Amino acid sequence: MSALSNEYWKRTHTCGELTGENTDQEVLLCGWVNTRRDHGGLIFIDLRDRYGITQVVIDPAQEAQEKGNNNNLNNPNNLLDRGSEIRNEFVLSVRGVVRGRPANMVNSKLKTGEIELLVKDLTLLSRAETPPFVVEDDVDASETLRLKHRYLDLRRSTMQRNLFVRSQFIQITREYLAGENFMDIETPILFKSTPEGARDYLVPSRVNPGAFYALPQSPQILKQLLMISGMDRYYQIARCFRDEDLRADRQPEFSQIDIELSFTDEETIFALLEGLMKRAYKEILNMDIPTPFNRLTYKEAMENYGVDKPDTRFELKLQDAGEIFANTGFNAFKSVLSSGGRIKGICVKGAAEGNAAFSRKDFDQYTKYVSNFGAKGLAWLKVIKTGPETELNSPIAKFLSQKEQVALTKTFSANAGDVIFIIADKDPDVVFAGLGALRLQIGRDRGLIDQSAFHFHWVTEFPMFEYSVEEKRYVAKHHPFTQPLDEDREKFLKDEDLPKLRAAAYDLVLNGHEVAGGSLRIHEPDIQAAMFRALNMSEDQIQSQFGFFMEALKYGTPPHGGIAVGIERNIMILVGTEAIRDVMAFPKTQKASCLMSNCPSVTAPEQLAELQISLLKQKPGSSQRSDMMKLKN
């Protein structure tokens, strides 16, 4: 194909904007062939770009009128011949006249559905091989194939809409925070490795052999240093990196709206975020989100829903059954309570009879499901009759006294036809995890969740510490820069009751997803030192990892706090998808690999030698990874 002047692709309009108001105008459109239909001498082409689709018509009767006036440089043949060569995903430039469609041919689903473009000139800008899958929203192709050819997958209107909403959300955020007097400040990508909960991605330094940078898990320390610097109100669209096990709402690299402000409190931060969400949902979905958001303490969330990020679009709350079985003769429950464990359950309405009744297969599947969360069993009880002569149908009913059965139905507000599920375990965390997951699964299975609803709420008063069985010590629930609640400050300084201490930490939860999280930060050197000591860090460790930060705290640190908003998780919910891969341009798989570029990939020996790095070979029978690195002497 000979070189073409840019006059062939300087479009006058996009494929999504022409309407009846443009009738009789001569325009030039550029885009991809979505479909081509040959009606025996009359060719229709749906021309697509990210703005929409316009129907293009090659009409030989019209061409006859134009014969002799064709100055197309790309192909000397007539328009009909050229139209016959066109295939899906070819890139075209089309010049023509806008005309109205016949009334019975109007497509009300498209903005451009009342018009079509009568072709006067058509130029082929780029050919395309047959794609490995059809570029359409209801694509019948595996995600693996789509990720391998991500550039084709991104042509689909659903994917383009997702990325457009993401762009909208970020633009709204910038405008909103600028209006609240925040400064957009970038922090380094190459920084020091500091423990923040997940493994770091390390970057070797060529000019400092044997030394490594770490990609930031978040700009936590840096944004606190900006508060010490007097920046007062900071934000950035921060790229973060965490080497952790992946799932549907996690990626090894992700973006967050990072916010920090001085001389603040929780109420100021809550109001700030509520204002941002209210504006975003109004501008993107034209939806009025009610504020202020509801609030739950961590304890309330766990007791009622079993998780610290509850989906409150449906009820089905957890109930405590410990008092019912305080003097039980049922050994399974008795041993749990005597060891300090918990007994809790949920009541599913109308699940014992009729077409909506749970089958024995359902009970078996739910029992297997909760075992994934550590539960050793799941008790189920069908309520046959309530009142003084309560009757329950269950494998464990014969072990329960009549008094216990009556109390169960009262505690769970159960009626005939309902089903009660119970988990008992010596480890309360197992009870919460199992029932919390079961509640969600039943909510999905029985259609209890209003998929069109958006339920925001704050979860507050998180524990400061949680015990790590793996490390055999207490670790920070959020991160080691979180301020204790004022009521627990003295206990914290005395190193008393670590498991019961609460933090000035908060999460914003939307439809069962944590979409933002933050805290008030420690700004006093003695409190920060006490925190590190509570985490069993030696003075040498503190100086090695955080010495520069401890030094900075000595020079006048304002009280400050902040929050980080997960961009991908918010967009995932906004557009109604269940995987953040659908709202990222080039995501990784669950094995943190890019199928399109085949990375991570083997590095050339010359590069490794330049970095003074050699690779350890895996020994027979060893569980170590073969790609572990060792520094040369």
Provide a quick synopsis of the model:
This protein has 633 residues and is α+β, with helices and mostly antiparallel strands.
Q: Under the CATH scheme, which architecture of the largest domain would be assigned?
A: 2-Layer Sandwich
Number of domains: 3
Structural class: alpha+beta
CATH superfamily heading of the largest domain: Bira Bifunctional Protein, Domain 2
Termini separation: 58 Å
Q: What can be said about the biggest beta sheet?
A: 8 strands, mixed
- Strand order in the largest sheet: 6-9-10-22-21-20-17-11
Beta-strand content estimate: 15-25%
The 3D shape can be described as globular
Q: What is the C-alpha radius of gyration, as a whole number of Å?
A: 31 Å
How many individual β-strands? 24
**Portion of residues within helices:** 25-40%
Quick check: average pLDDT? 91
Number of helices: 17
The top level CATH class name of the largest domain: Alpha Beta
Any low-confidence stretches, pLDDT <50, length ≥5? 69-76, 622-633
- CATH-derived topology of the largest domain: BirA Bifunctional Protein, domain 2
